[in-house]
Amino acid sequence: MKLAQLNPFDLVVLLTLSNTVQNAIIGDDNTITGGLIGATTLFIVNYLVVRFLYNHKKLDEMVEGKEDVLIENGKLRLDNLEKEVLTLPELEMVAHRQGFNSLDEIDRAVY
Predict the structure, then answer these.
(1) How far apart are alpha carbons 42 and 87 in whole angstroms?
(2) Is pLDDT above 70 for 111?
(3) Are 91 and 4 in contact (CB under 8 A)?
(4) Distance separating alpha carbons of residues 52 and 56, to the nearest angstrom
(5) Which of 58, 63, 62, 28 is nearest to 46 (CA)?
(6) How far from chain centre, in Å, is Cα 3?
């Protein structure tokens, strides 16, 4: 089960989207149409890149990196927590956001 929902490219799109919409609101092009065209273009490019990466696993791995197992067979992988610079309270907080009451529930979850 993956706990992360956004990939690095999604973050770039969100930041670019905020800049595009800001320019449409207070910049040189202050039309709603300009903002909508910019936002729509960014969403379409994001969709196409995500679809492309989905069909090219090796390239996707180069862009996003490999996933690290943090809990395996009911045991915390402290080495991977350290590698990801993630503390136990942070991991618990992420698990709570995903709807788990405790870390024990993650290992029992159906994938």
Answers:
(1) 34
(2) no
(3) no
(4) 6
(5) 63
(6) 9
Quickly count: other Cβ atoms within 10 Å of residue 104's Cβ: 11
- 93-102 long-range contacts, Cβ below 8 Å, gap at least 24? 94/3, 95/3, 98/3
Nearest to 57 by CA among 46, 66, 44, 45: 66
Q: 5 by DSSP, 3-state: which? A: coil
Per residue in 17-60, pLDDT tens? Answer: 888 777 776 766 667 787 788 888 888 988 898 889 889 888 88
Q: In whole angstroms, give the CA distance from residue 36 to residue 66.
A: 35
At 91, list the tokens: 């991991």
Q: Position 70: which residue type? A: L
pLDDT of residue 50: 83
* CA quadruple 76, 74, 61, 85: dihedral, nearest 10: -20
| pLDDT value of position 65 | 76
Predicted TM-score (pTM) of the model is 0.52
